[in-house]
Amino acid sequence: MKILTATDRTQGTADNDFTWVDEGEILTLGFVCGRDQSNPDGGCGCGRSFSGAVCHKATTTALVVDTDMTRAEVIAHVVANSSWPKSISSGMAKDMLAVAAKFDAGHVIQRRLDVYAVRELVAA
Question: pTM score > 0.90 for this model?
């Protein structure tokens, strides 16, 4: 199963890159605020970032990783570390899994609202 994890790879490629998530932490897609809904370069940064499932901080780069975790384990991990109701946090995990499934393991990806693109292929 493929998941998204935090990575420092390609940080700095974009002038407005940032990361406050530890390398390897499982990510979710997070929510986009009103300032960024129509412009991923808006004042907040949430329109171009992923959220750490544990630290709840943000990063603009994600590494697609093949994991031994099951779908149920990934969802349970996100739910257990969230303060959102289970219905919302499990949906966040499922949304992340759907994005991860579209890319090959080893891809570093970026987010621009609901558009996800490869920045780099990291050798496995």
Answer: yes
Identity of the residue numbered 119: R
User: Helix, strand, coil shares of the chain as percentages rounded to 5?
Assistant: 25, 25, 50
Q: Are strands 115-121 and 107-112 parallel, antiparallel or unpaired?
A: antiparallel
CB 58 within 8 A of CB 26: no
Which of 92, 59, 99, 67 is CA-nearest to residue 78?
92
85 contacts 78 by C-beta, under 8 angstroms? no
3-state secondary structure of 6: strand
Q: What is the pLDDT of residues 26-78, one digit of tens each?
A: 999 989 999 999 999 988 999 999 999 999 999 999 999 999 999 999 999 99
Residue holding tokens 């907040």? Answer: 44
